[in-house]
Structures are given as C-alpha cells and as structure tokens.
Amino acid sequence: MDALFPAPDPSPKRRIRRLRRAVPFRQVAPNLVTLLALCAGLTAIRMGIEGRYDMAVAGVVFAAVLDAIDGRLARMLKTTSRFGAELDSLADFVSFGVAPAFLIYVWRIDTLESLGWIAGLVFAICAALRLARFNAALADPDQPHWHKDFFVGVPAPAGAICGLLPIFLERMGVPVPEEAAGFVALYLVAIGVLMVSRLPTLSGKRLGARIPRDVVLPVLVASVLVAALGMSYPFTMLAAAAIAYLGHLPLAWRIWQRRSLEHRRAEGTGRRTGDSGSEPADDVPED
C-alpha cells in the first residue's frame, strides 16, 4: 500500500547529490570578511588586557574597515543572506560594543570601580540595542525612499570610534589624568545614548557611488593624502574624525528636517491632486 503522504523527493541519491553540491567561494567571501572583523575585535580586547592600547585601537579601527567592506561585498556579489546579516550583527556587537567599553574601562575608568563598570555596561547594551533596532528597521517596507540616506542614531562603528576619543587624545599628548575618570565615564555613557537615540545621522551609503569625471584625479590625490596622514599621525586623524563626526550631528538634523518637510509637502500635493479626480503630480516621490 502506498504511503498516504508520499515524500516530495523519494530518491535518496537525489538528496545526496544536493548535499554534496559545491558552494561557490563568492557566497562565503562576505562571511569570511565578517569573521575577520570579529577576530579583530576580540584581539583588541586581548591587547587591552595586556595594556597595548595602540594595538587595541588598531584592532577596533580594522574591524570598522572590514565592517564597511563585508556588506558592500555581499551586495556586489549578490550573496546577501539572513545568516550573513545575523553574523554581522553579532560581530559588530563584540567589535563596537564590548571591545570599546572594555578598553575604556581598563584604560581609565576602572578607578571608579563599580561606577566605571556600569558605564561600560551601558555603552555595550546601547550598542546591542542599536544593532537590534537597525535589523528591525531593515524589514520596514513603509519607510520613504529618502530615509536610506540616514541612520537612526549613531551607528555602532562610529559610536566605537567616538567612544575611544579619550584614548586618542591621551596618545596625542593631551593629558587625561585619573581624576578625569568620572568625565570619561559620562562621555562614554553619552555616546551610548546617542547610539540608541532617534537622532538622524548621515549614512554615507551613496557617497562615492558616482564620481564626476573631472574630479577623479583630485579625489585620488585627496585619498592618498588622507592615507598618508593616517599612517603618519594615526591618533590625530582618528581624533579629528571623531570630533568631525560629532560636529556633523546638528547638520544632519537640519538636513533631515528639510527633507522631511519636502516629503510632507509632496504628499500633501499628491492627496489634493488625487481628491480632484486627476492623476498625481509627477514630482511626488514614490515610497
């Protein structure tokens, strides 16, 4: 008697062939980059334990560079997956949540004992919440298209770099005495709050996607100059980048408000046109 609910693939040979099918390297390449970023974050923690803060900072910065590469590599190779997104979030939590909080703690705010540890916990938890909210926002199909130009809150890699600003200043020769541990702890908590805030920040995803032909050479020269300055004066450049990022937040807020006002006006024009019985205006953006 035949089975009441026959298997859709009764041939065991066919199942074995499917399991043995080779996976192209391009499918695992983005995940490999993500794992390298995770290794960099974990190594930064080890360097912090050993008191080698230069190498620890280098590990966090290297993880941030790899984090900027893996997602773009996955989209370029058309190998994006839910597994890769989850792995990326876990790696980001370690590299940009746990590692910076631990480095700041063992570097200065451990003198505050429990209060310093609580400040590190707040930063790490804020990074986790920031990443969870980012993953949830990716599944929202109702957000306007121009929202892709912004992040909600400070992204985790930028938060990590900004959180390490006191170490950058100390390595530049700016005195950060032990008596300033309380201010360092408050600063770390403030960066964590910025990560979970609703403050819009510029994403920069489209930056460099299209370069005008007449500015290609200046862009190449500027890139070489920045790379040379970064290699010669790494902590000065990192401190400048962190300060510049924090300084851009009011500008990002103003740009958000202007784009939001334009979007509301366009939607209002579309509703009025639709109510009159004619087609919507051509300049109404599609969500």
Task: Explain this structure.
The structure is a single chain. By secondary structure, this protein is mostly helical. The protein has a single domain (25-205, 228-266), classed as Four Helix Bundle (Hemerythrin (Met), subunit A), CATH 1.20.120. It is 70% helix and 2% strand. The protein is built from 10 helices and 2 strands, in the order H-H-H-H-H-E-H-H-H-E-H-H. The chain has helices at residues 12-20, 25-49, 53-77, 82-107, 114-138, 156-163, 165-172, 181-196, 216-232, 234-275; strands at residues 150-152, 200-202. The chain has a two-stranded antiparallel ribbon. The longest helix is centred in the last third of the chain and has 42 residues, at 234-275. Mean pLDDT is 84; it is low at 272-287.
Short overview:
The protein has helices at 12-20, 25-49, 53-77, 82-107, 114-138, 156-163, 165-172, 181-196, 216-232, 234-275; strands spanning 150-152, 200-202. With 287 residues, it is mainly alpha-helical. Strands 1-2 form a two-stranded antiparallel sheet.
